[in-house]
Amino acid sequence: MPASVPNTAAYFTLENHTANAVTLIGVNTSVAKEAQLHTIIEENGMVKMRQVTGFSIPSHGSLSLQPTGDHIMLLSLTAPLVVDDKVPLELIFEDGQQLIIELPVLKQAAQRSEQADHHHHH
Q1: In what order do the strands lie in the sheet with 86-93?
Q2: Are strands 46-51 and 32-43 parallel, antiparallel or unpaired?
Q3: Using the 8-state DSSP alphabet, how is residue 101 labeled?
Q4: Where does the signal peptide begin and end (predicted)?
Q5: Average pLDDT value for the chain
Q6: What is the distance between the alpha carbons of residues 77 and 96, in angstroms, rounded to a whole number?
Q7: In whole angstroms, what is the distance from residue 112 CA to residue 114 CA?
Q8: Whole-model pTM?
């Protein structure tokens, strides 16, 4: 991301292999001042982003975070992200469990332009 872009988004798929539903309620990362859970809603024909308190993952189900739906916004990046760098995320669940994952930085050009545009409406 260029240094002039202070925010970006994280996309990945989480699978729940347990017998109970779990809820992702927060994310910490060293690369941004704040990480928020967001979803995309359509309101009066306009597509908008909304912050949410959590994403539920059903028992033996999965949660897919993607540009057109639920995703994690990384706000006020502490430094520009470089393609192929690894970004650590600490996922926090409602039951107190935590999971550390690493995501590779990918070029935003992989997204369709109308999806990338919605991030400019914060």
Answers
A1: 55-57, 22-28, 86-93, 98-104
A2: antiparallel
A3: E
A4: none
A5: 87
A6: 26
A7: 6
A8: 0.82
Of 7, 18, 37, 24, residue with least CA distance to 98 = 24
CA-wise closest residue to 63 among 39, 47, 84? 39
* CB contact at 8 A, 36 and 72: yes
Determine how many CB atoms are found less than 10 A away from the CB of residue 74.
24
The residue whose two tokens read 């982003």 is 49
List, for residues 69-118, the tens digit of each pLDDT value: 999 999 999 998 999 999 999 999 999 999 999 999 998 654 443 344 44
Structure tokens at 59: 């028992």
* Contact call for residues 39 and 95 (beta carbons, < 8 A): no
Neighbours of 80 (CB within 10 A): 15
pLDDT tens digit sequence for 26-66 = 999 999 999 999 999 998 999 999 999 999 999 999 999 99
Stretch (H or E) spanning 58: none
Q: Give me 104's structure tokens.
A: 């590779």
